[in-house]
Automatic annotation (TrEMBL):
Gene3D superfamilies: 3.40.630.30. It comes from Candidatus Segetimicrobium genomatis. This is GNAT family N-acetyltransferase. SUPFAM superfamilies: Acyl-CoA N-acyltransferases (Nat) (SSF55729). It comes from the Bacteria.
Length: 170
């Protein structure tokens, strides 16, 4: 486990292991359901992203009893992957019962450090690290700002709630 100095609570972060899959799925369900839940198949596909190695690029914060996860955060190269300045994106999830101040910052610091390793491994001196959250997710916004990120843009997501009754594509 990687202790993070300065965290308000002694948050321990470690790399994801394949055996963590069920507790990662449970974390996502606890934190995101019902609006943004993910099926087991969807999670497997998410973890099978090209160039992404969950055992190197995904970090978890186990609960004190070790039975579940308090949070998770990853880092992955986005865009084409061959940019002069690599663009790395971080996805993360916090359990609703996790105390603020320790686990979130610990995971963000670890993901940011991993992003730096990825950039250097690609022979680059700098990269762009980005994370996304909902416009009303003030806790994540505060976490990202405290971690040195600043707002770049606000995105609007527009969706069609169903794909039923559509004509076949021509």
């Amino acid at each position: 486990m990687i202790p993070v100095p300065g965290a308000q609570e002694r948050a321990a972060v470690r790399r994801y292991r394949p055996g963590d899959f069920p507790v990662l799925a449970a974390l996502i369900e606890a934190a995101a359901a019902p609006e943004r839940s993910m099926t087991a198949t969807g999670l497997r596909e998410f973890l099978d992203y090209p160039g992404y190695r969950p055992e190197d690029d995904l970090f978890v914060a186990p609960s004190e009893d070790g039975a579940g996860l308090l949070g998770a955060r990853d880092v992955r190269v986005t865009a084409r992957g061959d940019e002069t300045v690599p663009i790395l994106e971080s996805w993360g999830m916090m359990h609703p019962e996790a105390r603020p101040g320790g686990v979130g910052p610990a995971l963000l610091v670890t993901a940011t450090q991993r992003a730096g390793q990825i950039v250097r491994a690609r022979g680059r001196e700098r990269g762009i690290f980005q994370a996304r959250c909902a416009t009303d997710d003030l806790a994540s916004q505060r976490l990202f700002e405290a971690g040195g990120l600043s707002q770049a843009r606000v995105l609007l997501t527009i969706l069609r709630p169903t794909l039923e009754n559509l004509s076949p594509a021509h």
